[in-house]
Amino acid sequence: MKFMPITLVLMLFTTPLRADSVALTDAWVRATPPGANTAAAYLTITSDADDRLVGAFSESTNEIQIHAHVQDDGVMRMRRLDSLSIPAGRAVVLAPGGKHLMMFGIAEPFAPGEELVITLLFERAGAVEQVFPVRDGRKQATTPS
Ligand SMILES: [Cu+2]
Fold this sequence. Notes:
Layout: H1 4-13, E1 22-30, E2 38-47, E3 51-57, E4 63-72, E5 75-81, E6 84-86, E7 92-94, E8 100-104, E9 115-122, E10 126-135
Parallel strand pairs: 1-10
Antiparallel strand pairs: 1-2, 2-7, 2-8, 3-6, 3-9, 4-5, 4-8, 9-10
């Protein structure tokens, strides 16, 4: 019975359907000036279980990266993160001056009142679609992030 062990191993690694879910709140995208080809998106993520944001994509942009702001010799810089840990029951806030989703290659400016759909990819919860209203962010922060 050569195939028996292989079958058993496959059964062990088959992931059952999970009910674990993430809650996404306060989602918004900063309005962009004419000519800009990057934009930043923000939201708050809460999860029932330990999870990890591993990526994001949207029809409105070529590429979305997870970014953080870090102090580097007194200068604020953006650093790309491969993923973002979402501890169970703890709100992870992406906001101006901190973590954010950075969109690249946007074709047209995002104007206040518009909406974007971004799909967030979680290690555990899978793909979650979220509507991001576009807002004028100039009042909240002065640095483009
Ligand atoms: Cu950034």
